[in-house]
Specification:
The complex is a heterodimer. The radius of gyration of chain A is 22 Å and the shape is globular. The model of chain A is unreliable at 1-13 (pLDDT under 50). Chain A has helices at residues 2-18, 26-49, 55-59, 62-95, 101-113, 116-127, 134-141, 149-173, 178-185, 190-201, 203-219, 222-228, 238-248, 250-275. Helix content of chain A is 78%, strand content 0%. Chain B folds into 2 domains: 48-129 and 239-273, Periplasmic binding protein-like II (D-Maltodextrin-Binding Protein, domain 2); 131-238, D-Maltodextrin-Binding Protein, domain 2 (3-Layer(aba) Sandwich). Helix content of chain B is 39%, strand content 20%. Chain B has 8 helices and 9 strands. Chain B has helices at 2-37, 62-75, 88-96, 110-118, 166-177, 191-199, 252-261, 265-273; strands at 51-58, 79-86, 103-105, 126-138, 158-161, 186-188, 205-209, 226-228, 238-245. The longest helix of chain B has 36 residues, at 2-37. Classes of the chains: A mainly alpha, B alpha/beta. The A-B interface holds A 17, 21, 23-24, 29-30, 32-34, 36-37, 40, 121, 124-125, 128-130, 144, 146-147, 225-226, 229-232, 235-236, 240, 243-250, 279 and B 1, 5, 8, 11-12, 15-16, 19-20, 22-24, 87, 89-90, 93, 157, 159, 162-165, 184-189, 193, 196-197, 200-202.
């Protein structure tokens, strides 16, 4: 199956190569340039403010290293959670007809439009020590999600999972279902069809979805600080470290921001080549 | 094939880069026009105070600042007071970056030093209010907190402000003087976030400003969710709010009048009503 999908993308590639490759019409070029400037300017601004000489001292401090490790661990865990829960949910939303489906879809995409701080507060009211669910859970098991790495992961996953759900649902809806039908007629079970046919076919979309979810989790601030709090070495991720450092030491804040930008940019570039072969 | 691809990409990049410069140049021109026009924006010297007055205040001052702005506008009907609130160091950054401001009132007078050096102040800053730190617990005090020493009990959920912000720095100084080593579960980036967690019962104790635990906090309409136990070890640390008129204030007449107003009995009453200590 992997071979088949590679072949498809290759034939698509050569079709694209035969297409005329003119320069863009001027309105397209101008608007595209505006877009580039919009996104490049902040990076330029950050680089201009960076204290290049003392950079390493800032970056090797315990405070920054702890935050970076926590950020990587929690954002990867959140992306994994987003994939594990988001893909099945997207499948259900794309394939199963049931009453209230649009309500469910709206509900699971709510974190995308909600201000993250509101999402974090809502999580706190639901899963905190005095929360609707968190209260009984805490009384029964002593489990406490806020102020722990689990709280960070949950807050990250809360804002990141909708991105997977929307992207994968779209991919599933656009899928040519005859491949799945063929697998079924050949005797594959529904689960085996999903695993061996459907998932490989939506592979690129799933890859994009997970990367975007991961990136969203890495940059997450509002829900994390509201739900999980901020404690160095326990719940302080890079964005939180930047925020508190801005209060006292702008050079440190800028240095940490630079790490965040470099880390995100590096991974996005690397992953783009992995998932969307350049043409 | 690879070469052709690269060539195309190079041409495209060149085009985009060239186009990208256009908006930059345009922006610079626009910026030049704005700063040239600034002089014309000066309010007429005829009326003592009129026009817009931009007042930037520490986040903890926002509720009282709204009240004071209303009172001031009653006395000076031709002045429109625009209040903006943020963390004190964020305010400093905004002003240094050129945000329009006439009066600045941060929670830590130290922030005014950088502004005096880089922009200049019209007069010496005037302390208009102080705010004591208090040990506070959620209504009910389920954990049975009685004194500051309880902040060292690891089994309790303890919150402080981050050491980078005034309320966190002052709290740590005060605790150090009292010989208490707190074991916080979270270092919240600002005092509003801290009191939110406290009032939700997600912390057993925290050190907040007296105004956060005052009966009139949150408009006084709701049930009290935070109870102050005072500062149980000697003199409470205090934040002081000093008001300063910037030397490049667009509306210096109204700015001076506003700062003078902050020392009147009416203004002092408004401060005291919300739990501030007035000098």
């Amino acid at each position: 199956m992997t071979d088949a999908s590679t072949a498809t993308s290759e034939s698509g590639d050569s079709a694209a190569r035969r297409a005329p490759r003119d320069l863009p019409p001027w309105p397209v070029a101008v608007l595209a340039a505006v877009g580039v400037v919009l996104f490049a300017l902040p990076v330029v601004g950050l680089a201009a403010r960076t204290p290049w000489t003392g950079l390493w001292t800032h970056l090797s401090s315990r405070f920054v290293v702890d935050a970076a490790v926590l950020s990587v661990v929690s954002s990867v865990a959140a992306a994994a959670f987003a994939a594990a829960v988001g893909v099945p949910l997207a499948w259900v939303l794309a394939r199963v007809q049931f009453r209230g489906r649009s309500v469910v879809r709206a509900l699971v995409t709510l974190p995308m439009v909600l201000p993250p701080v509101v999402g974090g507060a809502a999580l706190l009211f639901a899963l905190g020590r005095r929360g609707v669910v968190g209260g009984p859970l805490h009384d029964a098991t002593g489990l406490l999600l806020p102020y722990s790495i689990w709280g960070v992961i949950l807050a990250n996953a809360f804002v990141a999972t909708p991105l997977v759900i929307l992207t994968v649902e779209g991919a599933l809806r656009n899928l040519d279902r005859r491949y799945e039908a063929a697998a079924a007629t050949l005797g594959a079970s529904r689960l085996r069809t999903l695993w061996k046919v459907t998932l490989p076919m939506i592979g690129p979309a799933l890859g994009v979805a997970v990367v975007v979810a991961w990136a969203r989790a890495l940059g997450e601030f509002g829900a994390t600080v509201t739900f999980a709090g901020n404690l160095g070495g326990r719940t302080q991720t890079l964005p939180l470290a930047v925020f508190v450092a801005l209060e006292s030491d702008r050079d440190a804040a800028v240095a940490i921001s630079l790490v965040l930008v470099a880390l995100s940019l590096g991974l996005l570039i690397a992953l783009r080549d992995r998932w969307w072969p350049s043409r | 094939m690879g070469d052709r691809r690269r060539g195309n990409r190079g041409a495209a990049v060149g085009l985009v880069a060239a186009l990208a410069l256009l908006p930059v140049v345009a922006l610079q021109l626009a910026a030049g026009c704005t700063s040239a026009g600034d002089g014309d924006r000066m309010p007429s010297g005829g009326d003592e105070s009129s026009g817009d007055l931009h007042v930037l205040v520490a986040a903890s001052l926002l509720p009282v600042a709204e009240v004071l702005a209303g009172d001031f506008e009653l006395l000076h009907p031709s002045v429109e007071v625009q209040i903006a609130g943020a963390g004190s160091s964020a305010l400093r950054e905004q002003v240094l970056a050129g945000a329009p401001a006439d009066v600045l009132i941060p929670a830590d007078p130290g922030h005014l030093d950088a502004i005096r050096d880089e922009i200049g102040l019209a007069d010496a800053p005037v302390v208009v209010a102080r705010n004591s730190l208090v040990l506070a617990v959620p209504a009910g005090n389920d954990a049975g907190v009685t004194s500051l020493a309880d902040l060292a009990r690891p089994e309790l959920l303890i919150g402080l402000c981050a050491p980078e912000v005034p309320c966190g720095a002052l709290a740590r100084q005060g605790l150090a003087r009292a010989g208490i080593e707190p074991v916080p579960d979270t270092d919240e980036p600002n005092v509003r976030a801290l009191s939110t967690k406290l009032s939700a019962g997600e912390l057993d104790a925290a050190i907040v400003y007296a105004t956060d635990a005052a009966p009139n906090a949150n408009g006084g309409s709701r049930d009290r969710t935070i109870v102050s136990l005072g500062w149980t070890a000697g003199t409470a640390p205090q934040a002081s709010y000093a008001a300063a008129v910037l030397s490049d204030a667009p509306n210096p007449a109204a700015a001076t009048a506003f700062v003078a107003f902050l020392r009147t009995d009416a203004a002092r009453r408004a401060f005291a009503d919300l739990g501030f200590v007035v000098p």
